[in-house]
Automatic annotation (TrEMBL):
Gene Ontology biological-process annotations: glutamine biosynthetic process
Name this protein carries in UniProt: Glutamine synthetase
Domain of life: Eukaryota
InterPro entries for this protein: Gln_synt_N, Gln_synt_N_sf, Gln_synth/guanido_kin_cat_dom, Gln_synth_cat_dom, Gln_synth_gly_rich_site, Gln_synth_N_conserv_site, Glutamine_Synthetase
Locations listed in the record: Cytoplasm
Domain GS catalytic: start-end pairs: 114-371
Family: Belongs to the glutamine synthetase family.
The reaction(s) this protein catalyses: L-glutamate + NH4(+) + ATP = L-glutamine + ADP + phosphate + H(+)
Record's GO cellular component terms: cytoplasm
Chief location: cytoplasm
Amino acid sequence: MASVSPSSRLNKAVRQQYMSLPQGDKCQVTYIWIDGTGEGLRNKTRTLDKEPESIEEIPEWNFDGSSTYQAEGSNSDMYLIPVCMFRDPFTLDPNKLVLCEVLKYNRLPTESNHRASCNKVMEKMKEHCMWFGMEQEYTLLGTDGHPFSWPINGYPSPQGPYYCGVGANNAYGRDIVECHYKACLYAGIKICGTNAEVMPSQWEFQVGPCEGIEMGDHLWVARFLLHRVCEDFGVVATLDPKPITGNWNGAGCHTNVSTKQMREEDGLQYIEQAIEKLSKKHMEHIRMYDPRGGQDNTRRLTGLHETSSITDFSAGVANRGASIRIPRQVGQEKRGYFEDRRPAANCDPYLVTKVIACTCLLDPEEDEECK
């Protein structure tokens, strides 16, 4: 049995005694931001005099960027700019979670703030009503880094019974999955589903359809909720694209894409046009699909375990071994969406949706935001 954190063993009944105390008209607001790694999330909480009705009522704040890999100690104050507000499923109404952009001392975006440029691109192509849906895979680990519920010395049975499986011998950690799902629904995240994945202790949740910048906002906050729920249970959720070497599936973040034209009658032609454009920018996309310029995906995109090769672009109907999959129903109805199966589980959704929008709808050579 994988180890769990000491904090998860604290007396939760005692905690609940305090959590149920009234707080008057005051509102706790938890500010969430992406740190300098481009993968980690940070948060801190402040009190407002009343419940905010809109994001405009949430004040800017600041933090020490030298402790989050975002600044030097001699000039470390960073600005938190609220951009998206959700209900707080941990401290409950009227309290809020607020996703923030991070700006440097000169009020320019930090190097890990990819939302700013993504939002500019999404505003430019608003007329296309571009929808995204992202399938976030993750793996549950103990605090010792060992996969949750895997034998201490050895491996579970080979892959086969775990995908969408049921039963204590097939589904590891379902309590976490269901609590996360409920937390997302309460918060207002556009979560649309979940399932157990091919490797034991690996799960997936789906967010979408979301239009434009909303995709990145909702996925990042859904990730925050996942880490917080796992914290309560004393385990770790990793987004590593290949957490276990060998004959085990990796973890991706398959991205489903459609525009207004693709969803209309005979929209398949626009899907095919988009795929043709994507084929010419394959390696450029690979560099944007994980935080290390493609190095993480090199371990995952091998052509095995339902992946395409990282070096070759491919597309096909109902083909889960292709770079781009056209669902069979879309091929039959000749309209709908396509699925880009290349993004890694630890991708930045702002970068992924931005580069897809640039390649499919804008001129990456001429548009300043796409360069």
